[in-house]
Amino acid sequence: MPASAQQVGTLKPEEHPPMPFWTCTEKGCTKEMKSLAQDSNWRWIHNGQGTNCYDKKEWDTTLCPDPETCAANCHLDGITSDTYASSYGVTTEPRGVKLELVTKTPYGTNIGSRLYLMDTESTYQMFKLKNTEFSITVDASRLPCGLNGAVYFVEMDADGGKLASDGTNTAGAKYGTGYCDAQCPHDMKFIKGKANVLEWNSTLSTPIGKYGSCCAEMDIWEANSRATAYTAHPCNLTGSMLCDGVECGDTTKGERYKGVCDKDGCDFNAFRLDNKTFYGRTSNMQDFDVNSRAPIMVVTQFVTSDGTDTGDLVDIRRFYMQNGKLIPNANSSLAEVKGNSLNKQLCDEMKTVFGDTNDFAAKGGLKAMGEALDRGMVLALSLWDDDTANMLWLDSAFPPDADPATPGILRGPCKKTSGKIAYTRKQYPRASVRYLDLMVGKIGTTSESHRPEEAQGGDEEYGGDDRRLSEQFLA
């Protein structure tokens, strides 16, 4: 029998914060109260009596000499309802949740958060999105350059990897385990029930270990108040996997396109497609088609080849609603790239015009993305900053040393120095994002006419003519 690992701590109970969730049909929307779980990477890991297994970026070498021993010795503890707010900056609201960037505690400082929507106390809500529409209202007004309020789906296991770990993960989804994405992150402290202690590099702002955690990823909304994109990232695998070596596709090793996942993805960023007045933030709401100064209802439709749940995914469409107005997605302003949604033609044309490697097509394109959506994916809500690329790939010039006149280099209006984490954390510790009115249904059913009363309208506290917003967020 394998040693029990990633054990559950008993020093603090887990108290998931509530999250409203609407399921919609042609007859209207039905509300359920779901909940959220913080990712395991943010949690306290100790030996069962309160001695840290991990502290100040380092593993305790006595408790954690190797992956198996560490997992057997260490416990993943709960987060109480008040601690979600006081330690992680996660506060609930009647319509959703608010996440803050910097939260200081007596034990240290937490940066951002990553939360998963729960179905039950011990399983994640699974979404099968082909031939379906997903909507969420986002308030990004308090997110300056360099930050990312992200709403996305990843192909995690519903139980957080308990069954797949062959008994070495006893904590599971209740404690936020099992994360993976198309970047195959190496910073996960536990993967498949084993501690990622080998080759642990604590000299980095975000320490990393030898292994990564890979799976397909569908980015619905990656944004701050100045730039936004939605992106499909297929992978050559089913479910999640622990990667080792070339299969991780590590950019630093020159292996980015040799891995199992498409790290670039096919992205729709209006600014990158030379439509520079579609999305942004100013005090004059008319300056942009979608102005991030006010809350935005983001609607994403997953269109199949034959209009059925079983057809191939062929198009990912987007529109917005703001202040009661329906706003179609931006059209590309590049002559060589046509369209306003993610489909094969637009993805192929972008890769050609931008001179990018078409790893999206190599990894199966929209068809592979649809297959992952069909198997079921978990919803993640997060707020993060970027110590690797300073978020320039989202809101500035990237690569930073490339000629900004080259098509595809400019992704947003932010300065190339704006996303350094030492600056953002010092200047904008109270930066935040709000996620509201989470809805799913058949295509066309989450639109304004079908929304429940309490999920309609603007938000006077954060939108419109709110004079309390600091002018620093307009810089």
From TrEMBL:
Coiled-coil zones: none
User: What keywords is this UniProt entry annotated with?
Assistant: Carbohydrate metabolism, Cellulose degradation, Glycosidase, Hydrolase, Polysaccharide degradation, Signal
- Alphabetical list of InterPro entries matching this protein: ConA-like_dom_sf, Glyco_hydro_7, Glyco_hydro_7_sf
Uppermost EC category: hydrolase
Fetch the Pfam families from UniProt.
Glyco_hydro_7 (PF00840)
Annotated catalysed reactions: Hydrolysis of (1->4)-beta-D-glucosidic linkages in cellulose and cellotetraose, releasing cellobiose from the non-reducing ends of the chains
Q: What is its EC number?
A: 3.2.1.91
Q: Which domain of life is it from?
A: Eukaryota
According to the UniProt entry, which residue ranges have a biased composition of type Basic and acidic residues? 464-475
Q: Does the keyword Hydrolase apply?
A: yes
Task: Name the CDD domains for this protein.
Answer: GH7_CBH_EG
Sequence segments annotated as region (Disordered)? 445-475
GO terms (molecular function) for this protein are: cellulose 1,4-beta-cellobiosidase activity
- Biological process (GO), any one: cellulose catabolic process
Q: Which family does it belong to?
A: Belongs to the glycosyl hydrolase 7 (cellulase C) family.
Q: What is this protein called?
A: cellulose 1,4-beta-cellobiosidase (non-reducing end)
